[in-house]
Amino acid sequence: MKTYVAVFLTLSCVLLLYLNCCDGKTFDVKLLEEPSGLWSHNEEDKPLVMQINPANFSGPPHFRSLIGKCFNKSDNMYQYKFCPFFNVTQHELSLRWNPYNGILGVWQDWEIANNTFTAMLLKEGDKCGSISRTSRVVFECAPEHQLKNVSEPRTCEYLFTFQTPFVCHPNAMLVYPTMEDHLRDAWDELEGQYVREEITKKGYNKELTKIFQRAGFIQTGTKPLSKKSSDMLSSNNSNTGNNQFTSLEQCTAAFNILQAEIEGLRTLLMLKEVKSSKSYFNISDHHRGGKIPTN
Ligand SMILES: *[C@@H]1O[C@H](CO)[C@@H](O)[C@H](O)[C@H]1NC(C)=O
Ligand SMILES: *[C@@H]1O[C@H](CO)[C@@H](O)[C@H](O)[C@H]1NC(C)=O
Ligand SMILES: *[C@@H]1O[C@H](CO)[C@@H](O)[C@H](O)[C@H]1NC(C)=O
Ligand SMILES: *[C@@H]1O[C@H](CO)[C@@H](O)[C@H](O)[C@H]1NC(C)=O
Ligand SMILES: *[C@@H]1O[C@H](CO)[C@@H](O)[C@H](O)[C@H]1NC(C)=O
Ligand SMILES: *[C@@H]1O[C@H](CO)[C@@H](O)[C@H](O)[C@H]1NC(C)=O
Ligand SMILES: *[C@@H]1O[C@H](CO)[C@@H](O)[C@H](O)[C@H]1NC(C)=O
């Protein structure tokens, strides 16, 4: 008897659930075919999910203070949000039931040319047909941080201009001064090989990319630099502009640049077969007129 009751109750429950479920309602299934190349339809409060993790911070030390900050830019249809070292997102400014929201890229690599950080590359954004959306953020000197000039030079490749006082000093974006000693040594060594024509330009670029990967500027697995990185020694590091420092950051940057210059000179000397002991030329020596101890 108990079994019958149990079975009956169970069946009733199933029946009730079934009736409740479909009582005059249609199923809430979206059968919309999404044309490729358009945003997937996110519900407004559904959080966006990055497909990959942002890379760690790297680059000019004074950029570290941008971590955790975000910068908006609105045009008539969209709001764009750039969070340096994290992501770029796009939000449709409309009251439709399904405004488009999407990720235009996740922080990955610095673009480097001529010993200079030239742009931030944010990759693996939301799918766009068979590719992922990517963003490139270039810099422009200005008194305030501001996101400007959003454009889409190629489908699903976005270009932003980020105005910032951080790039105004002519040497603010140099790569070499930001690197650790052992990586500078590797770069110096590579310069030597290139100057002595022991490696080709192509080989040089390949090895330099590896050094940048070790420095964390470029993630492994990304393609080699598209632009040629030129000889760091040929770039005009000596031009320090007008030496008006308004902050400790600028002063520190200038100090690093001078230090790098000395490293560069040291390399040149080594190339000229000037042998010297390990204790030559550190930053505190340079005011002595650069006398080189010889063995
Ligand atoms: C983008 O980065 C910002 C800053 O860290 C973070 O608050 C936000 O959640 C990220 N957006 C997405 C969609 O992950
Ligand atoms: C980021 O830094 C942390 C700690 O410094 C390290 O453990 C981690 O491997 C780094 N991640 C990447 C992707 O390099
Ligand atoms: C950026 O957008 C957020 C949310 O939409 C808003 O609260 C904030 O005021 C905006 N900031 C700027 C500088 O436009
Ligand atoms: C790098 O510098 C060289 C000469 O200094 C110049 O010819 C070249 O256009 C520069 N390349 C870039 C990408 O700025
Ligand atoms: C961005 O826009 C400003 C003014 O609208 C213009 O002066 C500047 O040249 C533009 N920059 C780029 C990189 O297009
Ligand atoms: C570097 O600066 C010197 C003078 O300071 C100038 O004569 C030379 O043309 C510059 N080189 C480049 C590549 O800009
Ligand atoms: C730098 O030079 C000073 C004074 O000549 C010396 O005491 C110091 O040990 C040197 N440092 C290095 C790292 O060689």
Automatic annotation (TrEMBL):
Keyword list, A-Z: Disulfide bond, Signal
What SUPFAM superfamilies has UniProt attached to this entry? Mannose 6-phosphate receptor domain
Any signal peptide, and if so, which residues?
Answer: 1-24
Cross-referenced Pfam families: PRKCSH_1
GO CC term, one of those recorded: Golgi apparatus
In this protein, which residues make up the domain named DMAP1-binding? 175-280
Identify the residues that the record assigns to the MRH domain, covering every copy: 68-170
Per its record, how is this protein called by name? N-acetylglucosamine-1-phosphotransferase subunit gamma
